[in-house]
Design brief:
0% strand, 78% helix, MetI-like fold, globular, single chain, mainly alpha
Length: 266
Amino acid sequence: MLKLRNLSYETVVGLLAAASVILLVAPTLVILVMSFTGDFLLRFPPRSWSVRWYVELFENSPQIAASAWISLQVAFISTLASTTLGTLAALAIAGRKSTWAVALDSLFMSPMVFPAMSLGLALLLLLSMLGLRPSLWSLTVGHTVIVTPFVIRMVSAAVQQLNPVLLDCSASLGARRTFTFFNVTLPLIRPGLLGGAVIAFLTSIDHVPVSLMLSDPRVETLPVNLWILLDSNLDVRVASVSGIIVAITLVVILVLDRRMLGHVPR
């Protein structure tokens, strides 16, 4: 009877896990399939197959290319800024139970709690009060605020797993704090740092609410541009862009896993 109950439990959990994976993966697969349609409308399944929209995307889509370049700039700068700030914040508060550490942790995590649209509106009002107009730099600041909590969480998890004996040994041998940080601490927390940077970059590339609030027609990110194309005429190029983003994301994750996260100091 006990074996039967265990089997039933494992079966139910397995079915629920499979259903969850299908629900998460199915929309992506549908978009990938539709990106190879030969029609002028988004239909599933496609009536004909072609790569014409990928060709159109690279040869006759200057506005999409310009918005993609803006998104890459914003994502790259905000990732560098959030990785630096998030790592410093994580080193300062990770594992500490003092009142100030808990208060700072709650403050840093607040962008993950508040609705993104409300946060974008608040940032827009703040910039207006300071006399600043929406621009590439205001958009970068907004994205940095949004993605920094992800870096803090990832790096904090790595810092809490750090063996303090290694740091004490380094100090007892006469090493300075900077030497210990770059040669002991940083290599050991590298997986968390890299994971946080990747999540920050992908979140910035894909973020819409803050981009809507802090961008103008001259500074339009890729998600905003795709939103406009979908709202106006269900442009098939949107599916092609989505297919390219999915492919690039998979390649980045695989390379990161094989080349960087696989060589963790032990």
